[in-house]
Amino acid sequence: MEAISYIQSSFSDSNPLPFPTKNHLVTLNTTTPFTLISRASFVRLKHHTPINIHYSKNVTTNVPSSNPCSFAQSYLIKNLNFSSHSALKTSIEARFNTPNKPDLVIDLFKKWGFSNTNLRNIMAKEPWLHSCNPNKRVLPKFQFLLSKGASNTEIIYIVTKTPTFLRRSLDNHIVPTYELLIGYLQSDKETLNCIIRNPLSFCCTRMRTNVKLLVDFGVSDSTIVTLLHKWPSVFSSNNLLREIEELKELGFNPLKSAFSIALLAKLTVRKSHWDDKVNVFKKWGWSDENVVEAFRRQPNCMLASCDKINNVMEFWVNELGMDAMELVKGTNIFGLSLEKRVIPRGFVVQYMLAKGLIDKNASLITPFLITEEMFLKKFVMCFKENDTSYMLKIYQDKMNVQDYKEGSSIKPSLNCD
Predict the structure, then answer these.
(1) How far is 120 from 63, CA to CA, in rounded Å?
(2) Which end of the chain has fewer CB within 10 Å, C or N?
(3) What pLDDT is recorded for position 99?
(4) Quick one: 43 and 124 in the same domain?
(5) Co-location of 47 and 86 in the same domain
(6) Cβ pair 333, 341 in contact under 8 A
(7) How far apart are CA 166 and CA 122, in angstroms?
(8) 95 and 18 in one domain?
(9) What pLDDT digit, counting tens, does each position of 298-324 carry?
């Protein structure tokens, strides 16, 4: 092979053979190994009669065959049905030469109900497991979760969803973090539910630090509990300090529930998406100041999608004929179901305005925020029979939001004659 490489480099595009010919043939056979052809020989060949170099039909070379699979790679393919590519990638880090340790690891996992699919996912992400002592590194963590009331199915879910759990120290991370959570959530059941909702946050080394950070900034225990119940991912953020400071500058009170929603919005909505939402609001006539005011009042408006914001605005302005600025003080509406609440109640409110059944200075947002029972009592059933029956019909004909999006005009007539 060295000879061939040298021939190719000697007669390159920049220094070609003078001309090709079939009359001059160099035959390399087993009696003339490639490695014995010296550089000088090639130099002489280069300056003599032009030649073509061919392999003789009876040439044999000692080209090594491709390397066989490593033991680890073969083991993974055979025992866990890894693909060749995944097995090769995992075996580079796994590095075991006998089946003893991986057999013990697999046996332990399977005793706890893990499938081959579960194991492939776990082992691919944590290849160190193949050569660990499972009775020291794995079993105690399973037993800890079991002692807190977790079922085998829940343990399998936590570990498969976030194999990093097995890398965390039982004494230095898992137990202290669990004790911190149960201090707020008050029961093993709620604490396990929190872990199951977001096992990645539980495994995050920043979780305890972030809880302390919130406490230091004066965030109430009830707000921390709300975040743990609904949005535990907040506690794995590496931008928490910056966002807390920004919210305080905007005037959010850490003791109020709105703070937790604002924090969630700031941490989970990417800047590009945030800017897109601001632009949708501005498309309907809001200013930057209006957006900030709306966010201060009801931060959940920034958790709505761009499509949801646009659809609500379109219905409010184009279908109901109302002012988009009304919604600056009522952005809760962006978190409501368009087809089940906003559209049917919106047409009732429109009818009431047309008939003078509601004071024009009254809040137009209130009818959308109250319960259905209260809405019917205050805005439908308390008028004359004709008006009541007509508004009830409007309300009960719940609009299909998809028809609305596609431009179907199923708006009830406001002709009351």
Answers:
(1) 35
(2) C
(3) 74
(4) no
(5) no
(6) no
(7) 9
(8) no
(9) 999 999 999 999 999 999 999 999 999
Please answer whether residues 121 and 83 qualify as being in contact, where contact means their C-beta atoms are separated by less than 8 angstroms: no
> Tokens 């506690």 identify what position?
235
Torsion of CA 29, 32, 38, 43, to 10 degrees: -40
Following DSSP, what letter does each residue of 157-224 receive, concatenated? HHHHH-GGGGGS-IIIIIHHHHHHHHHHH-SHHHHHHHHHH-HHHHH-TTHHHHHHHHHHTT--HHHH
Domain end call among 167, 199, 223: 167
Q: Is residue 353 part of a domain?
A: yes
37: its two tokens: 């052809």
Q: Are the beta carbons of 141 and 174 closer than 8 angstroms?
A: yes
Structural domain range at position 99: 65-167
Whether residue 27 sits in one domain with residue 80 = no
Q: Which amino acid is at 34?
A: F
Indicate if 409 and 370 belong to the same structural domain.
yes
DSSP 101: H
Give whole-number Cα distances, 98 to 82, 94, 137, in Å: 18, 12, 19
pLDDT-derived band at 91, boundaries 50, 70, 90 = low
Total structural domains within the chain? 3
The last residue of a domain, from among 149, 167, 185: 167
- 106 and 21 in a common domain: no
The three-state secondary structure class of 354 is helix
Based on the domain organization, do 46 and 135 belong to the same domain?
no
The amino acid at residue 312 is: V
Residues 203/164, Cβ–Cβ less than 8 Å: yes
Enter the tokens of residue 384.
């004359």
Q: Confirm if 311 and 282 have CB atoms less than 8 A apart.
A: no
Q: Which of 178, 207, 172, 200 is nearest to 191 (CA)?
A: 178
Q: Give the three-state DSSP class for 58.
A: coil
Whole-angstrom distance, CA of residue 404 vs CA of residue 400 = 6
Q: What's the whole-number mean pLDDT along residues 118-125?
A: 87
The structure tokens listed for 230 are 């609904």
Distance CA 246, CA 249 (A): 5
